[in-house]
Backbone:
């Protein structure tokens, strides 16, 4: 009996050591156009998000967390490469853009794959595909599989851009070879109706830019013909993403996995499924937030059901600040009511003001990370080096050059955030403590106000704000703090002139 007890004890100790040596699974839930004030755990009262609130209440909820840029493509580039997007001249990509991330550049999924992880991206991509002149009827490459992902299931660019199809690994899903796809962003192809020519066919009006080929009752950016059997229904895309994520998790339980789950919600066109229509009084934008919360909850429940939650880190955040009118008249502005998508902050998506990049940021790891609220200054760019630090990967000299190892901060063990944090928009901005500096620029940004009714935040003069007393960035104190302005200008110059800042 004593011998049997010793054997059982030995087995338990081996099991414990084995569990301690298991690398944690990593899931990044990246929402599209979700603002700082769009969640009930961040102060929203007109919409309730209980599933995301569960993550916030059980993990580290950051109040000063940032994506790297106020638009989506640059933020996604920095997240996956640990490199500032301005180094690549990255901007919002057209739907037919080539792959933005070079296949020889180290990436977060590639680093994790090198360390034994199975990797997947499911959702919105918008980082380009192919080398130009993509043949949508054949093998679409290079793409995610060439930069470190083992599996991909994607909206190729954005939902408001053609082709309106899903791409699984290298091929369009459900394509009939007898009905080939043709895409053109300069001139009309085929005979499909367009929003400009046939506005009576639209669910809701669009601007001219979004007024090309109609798919699922909504006109898109660009022209498309063919591929009718492969065209998605916007309402079902979130469920398709969820199902593919569940399958990936089920197939990856024997090894650590990395899942980059990139929502299309709450980006335009906003077409939430029937169960969510009327979930709020804010119309389709509010209803899409509720739908996003539901899908998030179902993904977390699946991890729990499989017994994986306590060995899975979940990072929940957004690719940029909020936007209401982004090409479609879907009543997002008219039905806003008392809701404040950006919370107390000034600006929105596209803007150099704080709401352009300050977004909900939550890190959840039940059983390991203790619940707390942190005001540490953090950025998605640092996730690369922080996960490398966590799993014991030593970064090469040219790997993730702008990413800092800050796992103790992301895990809530430290309150020390970034000393300097770069924010990209039409210009470059810099946070240092509670000070926010916006570098002067002559770049044209009038379209942001004219087309989106958003303050660009740019000026030909230096702007400096003290967020401790001026959270709305209303009082420019640059003339009073000339030494500080000079120091922050010098820091931006240093960052620009150095490929790496670690």
Residues:
């Amino acid at each position: 009996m004593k011998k049997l007890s010793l054997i059982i004890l030995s087995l338990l100790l081996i099991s414990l050591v084995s569990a301690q040596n298991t690398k944690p699974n990593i899931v990044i839930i990246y929402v599209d156009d979700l603002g700082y004030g769009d969640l009930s755990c961040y102060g929203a009262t007109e919409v309730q998000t209980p599933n995301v609130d569960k993550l916030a209440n059980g993990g580290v909820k950051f109040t000063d967390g940032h994506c790297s840029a106020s638009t989506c493509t640059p933020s996604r580039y920095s997240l996956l490469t640990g490199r500032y997007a301005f180094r690549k001249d990255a901007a919002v990509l057209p739907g037919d853009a080539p792959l933005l991330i070079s296949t020889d550049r180290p990436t977060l999924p590639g680093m994790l794959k090198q360390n034994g992880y199975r990797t997947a991206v499911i959702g919105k991509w918008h980082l380009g595909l192919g080398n130009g002149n993509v043949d949508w009827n054949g093998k679409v490459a290079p793409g995610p599989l060439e930069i470190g992902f083992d599996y991909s299931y994607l909206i190729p660019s954005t939902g408001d851009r053609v082709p309106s199809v899903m791409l699984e690994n290298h091929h369009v899903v459900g394509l009939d070879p007898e009905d080939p796809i043709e895409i053109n962003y300069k001139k009309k192809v085929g005979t499909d109706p367009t929003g400009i020519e046939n506005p009576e066919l639209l669910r809701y009006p669009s601007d001219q830019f979004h007024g090309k080929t109609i798919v699922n009752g909504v006109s898109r950016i660009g022209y498309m013909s063919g591929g009718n059997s492969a065209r998605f229904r916007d309402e079902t895309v979130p469920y398709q993403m969820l199902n593919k994520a569940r399958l990936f998790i089920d197939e990856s339980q024997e090894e650590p996995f990395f899942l980059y789950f990139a929502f299309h919600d709450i980006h335009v066109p906003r077409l939430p499924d029937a169960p969510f229509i009327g979930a709020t009084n804010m119309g389709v934008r509010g209803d899409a937030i509720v739908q996003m919360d539901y899908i998030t909850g179902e993904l977390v429940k699946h991890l729990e059901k499989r017994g994986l939650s306590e060995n899975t880190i979940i990072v929940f955040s957004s690719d940029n600040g909020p936007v209401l009118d982004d090409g479609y008249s879907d009543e997002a502005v008219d039905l806003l009511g008392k809701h404040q998508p950006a919370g107390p902050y000034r600006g929105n998506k596209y803007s150099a003001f704080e709401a352009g990049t300050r977004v909900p940021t939550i890190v959840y790891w039940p059983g390991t990370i203790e619940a707390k609220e942190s005001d540490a200054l953090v950025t998605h760019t640092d996730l690369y080096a922080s996960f490398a630090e966590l799993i014991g990967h030593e970064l090469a000299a040219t790997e993730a050059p702008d990413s800092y190892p800050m796992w103790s901060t992301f895990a809530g063990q430290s309150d020390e955030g970034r000393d300097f944090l770069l924010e990209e928009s039409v210009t470059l901005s810099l946070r240092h403590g509670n000070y926010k500096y916006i570098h002067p620029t002559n770049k044209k940004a009038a379209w942001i106000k004219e087309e989106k009714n958003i303050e660009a935040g740019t000026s030909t003069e230096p702007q400096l704000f003290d967020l401790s007393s001026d959270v709305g960035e209303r009082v420019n104190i640059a003339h009073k703090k000339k030494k500080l302005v000079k120091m922050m200008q010098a820091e931006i110059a240093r960052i620009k002139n150095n490929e790496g800042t670690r």
